[in-house]
Amino acid sequence: MTLKLGVPSKGRLMEKTFEWFAKRGITLSRTGSDREYAGAVEGVDGVDLVLLSAGEVPRELAAGRIHLGVTGTDLVQEKLPLWEQQVEEVAPLGFGHADLILAVPQLWVDVDTLDDLDAVAAAFRRKHGHRLRIATKYHRLVREYLMDAGVADYQLVDSQGATEGTVKNETAEMVADITSTGETLRANHLKLLSDGPVLRSQATLWRSRTAKCSADEKKVLGALLDRLHNG
Amino acid sequence: MSDRMNALALAARLRMNFEAAGARVVEPPYLQPAETLLDLYGEDIRARAYVTTDALRGEQMLRPDFTVPVVQMHMSHGAEPARYTYAGEVFRRQEHDEDRANEYLQVGYEVFDRKDPASADAEVFALIALQLRDMPVRAATGDIGILMAAVQGLNTTDLRKAALMRHIWRPRRFRALLDRFAGRAPLADSRRKLLSTEGVLTGQVPAIGKRRPAEIDARVDALRADAAEPPIAEHEILALEALMAVRETIPYASEQLRDIAVDLPSINPALDRLDARTAAMKARGIDIETLDFEASYGRTSMEYYDGFVFGFYADARPDLPVIASGGRYDALTRQLGQGAEIPAVGGVLRPDLMLRLEGAEQ
């Protein structure tokens, strides 16, 4: 049996992850053709590389099918309700920084805080006969955040892409989305609420709390974690 | 027999008792249109109820309770007065605690009667207490109507009162609003800046979205007008805080509330209703001398109660949720009644928990 390490299978997130491990003397690489999701690990014995979409890593960690995995804090917290019991943070990797934020039209000069948002949601519902719509793909995180803040009279509408455009298209009144720089927001005439982000996220290495570990695998895991922490 | 069969058998017995007390048996469907529940509870319900869909009917919810379908049924074709009973599963999605049941039995009793609300409150409470007799449970009671009357009677603008009323069931936001209206909380920087401006503020940036510039201008005007209003008087705020803190046996609670009514006279009619209910409960043999009353009881349950509220707890088993609960929901019948309304009160028992309590006793 070998220890399974899951990492994102493409793009900048994969490249940066490979670099991060390389700095610690562990070479990760994709093998075979570009289309085949197979990988190799050099520099440490007994570890298998599993290439996955970043969105699948949380589920695989929670199910215990991989022992270690790299993915964003946002995805772990959105997809795993009991994430603290299911995974443990090994190390933040220092890249893939992104905040989950709430943004409203710049036109809304009267809205800056969650207090304002709540009051406006009530008035909006009275005037338009439906609740104020927030476009997002982070349903659970946004709902819990707003519930905690006591904001009412809103509804979440699903948006899996081009979320910032929903306001102009009038399929939503505001958005909750991941942003790294805020440029897309500004280009779409949106602004942030001042209460701060719903969540600050970055690429992180996680350890599954549920994956079964043989004595051998435990040894490999211990050695690997030592390397990563001291590297 | 399995736990589930035992619970079903007990549920059938409890429902029969309610039937014997004069209730008609109803069997609402498992699937409820999601829209009604979403309109009532907002997005929060999605964290509590299972949602499913089909292409024809759209979003459906596995019933998270019976009250809403029973009210809808009554409002569409019920005769008056009416008493209903039911027994069956409800479904509650759990996202934080795997040990909490996501499917359990409820047995309920609901009264739709215009004649004598105090007597109907006492009837529901006494029947549920009777079903729980000899069990190690303690009752807690409250009355959301008193707090609502206090808010309605504040000497401040209708806008402020409406904002407070909207958040009666969200104590933290209620508190924040109260602090703001009392002039205790500092203004947010952005608000101070906004209030230092004059004239129309929209028109500088592109007008996108369904919320139009006229709505924004109107809210800016309303905020400016609100800033010119005096804060809610200190003695009213203190009385409201004292009210929310009342936690006593009913006779002492009633006395304390009458003292508070000196500063909040608007609550007197609600206190008369409390006294009438207490008398009706006493007439039904409830020991009101030892019955607890908490003025803030029922504010955090995300429910629709707007008057009498109650719950029965197993003090020796803090791991168990509330064994039975209920209350008055006049406003719900108004919301679901499409113009019609009727005073209504009801409560539910959880047979699975009753069996666990009994098992622990033996």
Helix/strand order of chain B, N-terminal first: HEEHEEHEEHEHHHHHHEHHEEEHEH
Overall spatial form of chain A:
elongated
**Average of pLDDT of chain B:** 93
What is the strand tally of chain B?
12
As residue ranges, the low-confidence spans of chain B are: none
Strand content of chain A: 25-35%
Question: Radius of gyration of chain B from the CA trace?
Answer: 23 Å
Helix content of chain B: 40-55%
The dominant shape of chain B is globular
In quaternary terms, these chains amount to heterodimer
- What is the arithmetic mean of pLDDT of chain A? 91
- The number of E-state strands of chain A comes to 13
The helix/strand class of chain A is alpha/beta
Task: Outline the biggest β-sheet of chain B.
Answer: 9 strands, mixed
Radius of gyration of chain A: 21 Å
Number of helices of chain B: 14
Q: Percent of residues of chain A in helical segments? A: 25-40%
Q: What is the fold named in CATH at topology level of the domain at 1-116 and 347-362 in chain B?
A: BirA Bifunctional Protein, domain 2
| Count of distinct structural domains of chain A | 2
Question: With helices defined by DSSP (H or I, 4 residues minimum), what is the helix count of chain A?
Answer: 8
Protein name (chain A): ATP phosphoribosyltransferase
InterPro entries (chain A): ATP_PRibTrfase_cat, ATP_PRibTrfase_HisG
Domain ATP phosphoribosyltransferase catalytic (chain A): 55-228
Keywords (chain A): Amino-acid biosynthesis, Glycosyltransferase, Histidine biosynthesis, Transferase
